Amino acid sequence: HVLTNYSKDSPGAVRAITSYKDTLYAAVDNKVMTYNGTSGVTLYTSPEVSIDNKYESFTDFIYPMSMSVFLDSLFVGTYPRSIYEYDGTNLKLSYDENYQRSFDTLIVYKNKLYAGDSLSGRIYTYNGINWSLEDKLPERNDGVGSSVIFNNKLYLGSNRLGRVYEYIPENNIQ
Asked: What is the mean pLDDT of residues 144-164?
């Protein structure tokens, strides 16, 4: 049952929810909303938010799709193409592509942050310093839509072909 609706003024899909530094974070449409147990606020939304002295609009076309905590920062994967890092004070661009991507899943596995792209099936990793393209799903027309750690293994769920892949970093997709 629903205890309380903390996003009364923001109807829409909750695409991701996580906790970070004793605060609940929810990705709701083009917003990241927070709740500290007493009151809720919006971390970012339209019309603009300053990121590394650039202004980035989160209206209409940038949507937070996934969130994960890695190395004491909150990472937010977005559609159409970026991953942002929030350290509890500052929000900055961590990764950006020139191509359309949708980072629908972020997960920490074996001391790396994994980002799955639901449009291309690409799997990216972040080691705390650099992002790199790690692998790609074997089916050309499939994308990474979800991920989970089960029995100390990383599993990736496809978003178009209904497949679950076991990901072994040393051997790639199984």
From this structure: 92
The reported pLDDT for the residue numbered 168 is 81
Instruction: Evaluate if residue 127 carries a pLDDT over 90.
Output: yes
Tokens in use for 146? 């979800």
Supply φ then ψ for residue 163, to 5 degrees.
-110, 150
Residue 15 near residue 65 (C-beta atoms within 8 A):
yes
Strand order across the 73-79 sheet: 63-70, 73-79, 82-86, 91-96
Distance (Å, rounded) from C-alpha 114 to C-alpha 19?
Answer: 18
Q: How far is CA 161 from CA 41, 77, 119, 122, 139, in A?
A: 38, 22, 12, 15, 9
pLDDT score of 11? 60
- CA pair distance 154, 107, nearest whole angstrom: 9
Average pLDDT value for the chain: 79
Phi/psi-derived region of residue 30, left when phi > 0, alpha when psi is between -120 and 50, beta in every other case: alpha
Its pTM stands at 0.81
Whole-angstrom distance, CA of residue 144 vs CA of residue 113:
15
